[in-house]
Amino acid sequence: MEYNHPICRISLIIPHKNIPLMERKITISQIRDAAYQAYSESKEVSGGANANYIPYLANVNPELFGLSVTLANGTTFNFGDTEYKFGIESVSKVPTAILAMIQHTPEGVLRQIGADATGLPFNSIFAILLEKDHPSTPLVNAGAISACSMIAPQGDSSEKWKAITDNITDLCGSAPQLLDELYESETATNFNNRAISWLLKNYNRIYDEVDMSLDLYTRQCSLGITSSQLSIMGATIANGGMNPVTGKQVHSREISSKITTMIASVGFYQHTGDWLFTSGIPAKTGVGGGVMGVMPGLFGIAAFAPPLDDAGNSVKAQTAIKKFMQKLDLGIFNGDQVTIVPE
Length: 343
Ligand code: GLN
Prior knowledge:
Blueprint: E1 2-4, E2 11-13, E3 23-27, H1 28-42, H2 55-58, E4 66-71, E5 76-80, E6 86-87, H3 93-112, H4 126-130, H5 141-150, H6 157-172, E7 177-178, H7 180-189, H8 191-202, H9 210-221, E8 223-225, H10 227-238, H11 253-266, H12 272-279, E9 283-285, E10 290-295, E11 299-304, H13 315-327, E12 337-341
Glutamine (GLN) is lined by residues 89-90, 122-123, 141, 186, 193, 221, 286-287, 312.
């Protein structure tokens, strides 16, 4: 049997006959139809509430809902409010972790931050006390503040900010926009994150000036992004670091694999296992209501709807992405060899 990997196109000869790999072809129109149905069927899903600990987020229209899918060839399908700029919040932890790996290598990030799930809420102080030898992962608040402190050039807030936003622009193929009102709202209320930052400083896990590192984290969370942009970011990661819309190689294939591992292990915080078990796709959430999923070699997907469950994950976005995966019978661990074909 010949196995063609969708990204690296290496042919392997698999010697045994009865390996239960299923070769499947999915057409682009099947993907579009599944996305449309998942969107339509999730529209009326209720439950959850807007994040209320950040005043700006409490006031976002809870009815907004969008679903976007970007294939590894750059084709994007958008349904609903996919051009609305919502707060990227914790989804921003993904691009900054990528940037830290570009600048310091994946091993450097593993050493200075870690790559472990905490099993605890995103803003947990307890998690830091439990694992004070490292802040666990760049995909929770502690590790994300630590990642901001690692970004070069050291000591220069405006150049660090430029590096962070340029990287997001490269991943999405278009620029995010700072939501000033959200930034002010977060800065005025981020007392827990201030405590996290100084506790990390105590453990020598902040690698630049503390307040600057926290400010960069707060600012990156306050970037406005669309679900269409996030699905392109997911597709860039799924596509071995090459943005399928712009053709730019943003990061290495190795970093794609490392960041997808991190997303799979902690993307939904204390609900990550349940999410991966039921959805079959590594995904990262934010309290702005965004969820970004990565299906290696195939596509990126993003959904946005403000009401959240108790762990801070969008209820409607979760439903839509799960329905999409189920309709196409996809799952990262199901062993199928899936190829997307034109028709
Ligand atoms: N800015 C938010 C915070 O630090 C992000 C949290 C999230 O999206 N889970 O609390």
